[in-house]
Amino acid sequence: MDKKKFYVNVGSHEISQIRYDNNDEFTIYATQDEVQTLRNKLDNMSDSDTRAFFRAHVPIMPYHNDKPNDDYDSELTEAFRMMYDLGDKETKQHIEEIGILSDNHL
């Protein structure tokens, strides 16, 4: 499959072929299958975030035992790893500068 250019905004969970407003936080070149995998990771982050929100409102659950937060962090790291692998030079540099993958050895 041919790789196409996509713009990704992690905060809004947006992946688009059309550059619009602030959706170009990261630029990647990916196949449709790769984009779908990245989309699944971003969707999983949303699901984990929702579960963490509800967990935060249950006072008897200890904060340090928070699987939704762990799941969110894991999906976020995997999404950044994927964007690093598929990204252009600027995307790779940006991800290196923010250091999110520093523990995972680029």
UniProtKB/TrEMBL annotation:
It comes from the Bacteria. Keywords: Hydrolase. One of its GO terms (molecular function) is hydrolase activity. This is Hydrolase.
